Amino acid sequence: MKRFHPTAWVLVSMLALVALVAGCNRHKEAPGTPGGGSPEDAMRDSLELIRDGKFDMFWQHALPPADFAALKADWPRRNTAAEPINDDDRAKFANGVKRLTEPDAEKKLYADVRPTLVRFDKEYKDQMPLVTGVAQSMALTAIDQSTDLTIPQKRQLREAVDVIAPWAQTVAWGDQDKAKQAIAALVDAARKAHLTTPEALHSMDFNQSMVAYSAMWLGFKNFFNVYGLSLDKSFDSISIDTLENTGGTAHVKITYTLLDKPIQTDATLVLLDGRWYDSDLLQSVRNQHVKLNPPAPASSPGPAPSATAAPPPRDPAAPVATAKTR
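^ thats the sequence. predicted structure below, dont judge the formating
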């Protein structure tokens, strides 16, 4: 079974940090309306939906209608386990779900971690610089080696990791009251995600998956909020500026603060049917659609097309926009 590596949480959370709180006087479209009326609105509305964990509406907003329909149709195969689920994986998953969702899970989990919390200041606190240094190195390596992230995404994730590592050394991880709150956040998220078995997790349809993702994302935010890393504070700090708009393609800069340290990233948006969409995200969805729906084997050649024949349909894997060197 494909395991959910802790580094993935870092990547997902840092990407979601580019959410933006809307201006008070800005016109609000219906949630989930495809695309945006301007590059800034398209980016802002998508990220607000991520911020609030409304992932079903996010996808509906972030993709043109035909691509959103294809994403939902593809979802059962996208959600399939990358590797066969063996008995050991199944048992570990079941045990983890049971511990997080059983009655009095909060009390039982706290009882398990309390001895470690008691020993933290005496035995572990001095080791935090080493531990965070190793974690930082692993995270940076994972970012550099990722084939799914764009150049600006890698750049902002590296900056975010470099900000979080020093913060992690100062957190009172041994605080028992905070540990109770953090455990409660994780337990609440697991219960709301309705986890049961790994097979059930991978057989969820699109709507069920979005509910589970929302629960886990909001629980993740609550967990780190307990220890002083407020993602909403970063959300409030963000600004979006259009650097270039050539009519069909726009380049925007996104600036925000993480733990009071400024971070910048940028994105390319493309205009389709009068609405703006993030070209990297759209390209990724279209590439995945082609991968999951390979063309049928070519049949025997027929007569040559006439000069008046309609042009072939657009290759869905073709670039939706020429990305800038960023």
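Residues 11 and 157 are 7 Å apart (CA to CA).
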